[in-house]
UniProtKB/TrEMBL annotation:
Residues 69-137 form the BTB domain. InterPro entries: BT1/2/3/4/5 (IPR044513), BTB/POZ_dom (IPR000210), Znf_TAZ (IPR000197). GO terms for molecular function: calmodulin binding; metal ion binding. Residues 243-341 form the TAZ-type domain. Coiled coil: none annotated. Pathway: Protein modification; protein ubiquitination. This is BTB/POZ and TAZ domain-containing protein 4. Pfam families: BTB (PF00651), zf-TAZ (PF02135). Residues 1-24 are annotated as: Disordered. Keywords: Metal-binding, Ubl conjugation pathway. One of its GO terms (biological process) is regulation of DNA-templated transcription. It comes from Carya illinoinensis.
Length: 377
């Protein structure tokens, strides 16, 4: 104990605790490993998948050198690609079935892929080995790769082709061709994106060579696109019409609020009909109040106040009647003629009653959508 006390008092160790720096944790570097976050259905998973570049290079060499290849792939213009049945069968269930049928015939197994450039087939087979591709090759052969991935059921490559098309390879020049491929290759998301692009840029796209070729080869598809365009235009017109209606109903509702405000609270910016507004007058918080004040001023001094005699007075009579239909208690209401209109409503025709009832319902429904109503049922 004595020695420990002397050390703690006389040595630097006693006055300051020295902690050694921890060595760096061992881990893969970006130069020797591919590190990617695990994904499933678009959601992140805990953990990482680290694939060594040496492993990637090994699969690339196996494909490039064709070491002990046991199957050939015949392509356009006499091209031959050497591959391995085990890898092709595991990567593509379609190729697995084709190879199984050839097994036992006592001859070199061979798969024929015609109608697609040799280089595109080579990029496709390379992807089956290492799931890798060059950017330039994807840009050049993306349509061929989409067809091959669909025909041989390689969903990873198919998703990658769709993603690349969505992120920039889709243009107005090729959108018609890609739209037809999306329909043939069962790619609904890609088809929807192409359809939306065609609808938004119809005039420019309908002048492209792809559109003219589609007219000749698939006239029914052109008809469907034209029908979709008409439907979209009608839907847009209907949407604009409903927006305009809603705006009108909101304006009527705001006018009803301003009318109650004027008659119940007494707006500070309204006065006798022969009095002008002051320049420094604070504006009313009700947006429709100023316009309604001008209408009230006119109504108070008009010589042709009878309904039908003056268009402005007629509008005022309609607003007063609309208020009476919205008002829930005319006995205590401060708006002029509210009770009189309540009595008049009872004597109206059935047709007139239905017209006003529909208007009131639409006004209240519109206000309920945008906010709590000032009036209630």
């Amino acid at each position: 104990m004595g020695k420990m006390d002397s050390i703690s008092e006389g040595s630097p160790l006693g006055s300051e605790k020295i902690v050694p720096v921890a060595p760096p944790l061992p881990g893969p570097t970006t130069s020797s490993y591919y590190q990617k976050e695990l994904m499933m259905n678009g959601s992140n998973l805990s953990g990482y998948s680290c694939v060594s570049t040496a492993t990637i290079d090994l699969w690339e060499r196996l494909f490039d050198e064709g070491y002990r290849a046991d199957v050939t792939i015949d392509t356009e213009n006499g091209g031959i690609i050497y591959a391995h049945t085990n890898i092709l069968g595991m990567a593509s269930p379609v190729m697995k079935g084709m190879l199984k049928k050839m097994k036992g015939h006592g001859r070199q197994q061979s798969i024929s892929i015609r109608g697609i450039p040799n280089d595109a087939v080579r990029v496709f087979i390379r992807f089956l080995y290492s799931s890798c591709y060059e950017k330039e090759e994807m840009e050049e052969f993306v349509l061929h790769l989409l067809v091959l991935s669909h025909a041989f059921v390689v969903p990873q490559l198919k998703q990658e082709c769709v993603r690349q098309l969505e992120q920039g390879l889709l243009t107005m020049e090729n959108v018609i061709d890609i739209f037809q491929l999306a329909l043939l290759c069962d790619a609904p998301r890609l088809g929807f994106i192409c359809h939306r692009m065609i609808m938004r840029n119809f005039i420019a796209i309908s002048a492209t060579e792809g559109w003219q070729a589609m007219k000749q080869s698939h006239p029914f598809l052109e008809k469907e696109l034209l029908e979709s365009l008409i439907y979209e235009e009608n839907r847009q017109k209907e949407r604009i019409r409903k927006l305009n209606e809603r705006r009108i109903y909101l304006q009527l509702y705001e006018a009803m609020e301003a009318l109650v405000h004027i008659c119940r609270d007494g707006c500070q910016t309204i006065g006798p009909h022969d009095k002008d507004f002051k320049g420094n007058q604070v504006p009313c918080r009700y947006a429709a109040c100023k316009g309604l004040e001008l209408l009230v001023r006119h109504f108070a001094g008009c010589k042709l106040r009878v309904p039908g005699g003056c268009i402005h007075c007629k509008r005022m009579w309609q607003l007063l009647e609309l208020h009476s239909r919205l008002c829930t208690n005319s006995n205590v209401c401060g708006v002029p003629l509210c009770r009189n209109f309540k009595e008049r409503i009872r004597r109206q025709s059935k047709k007139e009653e239905i017209k006003w009832t529909l208007l009131v319902e639409k006004i209240l429904r519109t206000k309920t959508i945008t906010g709590a109503p000032f009036f209630s049922w």
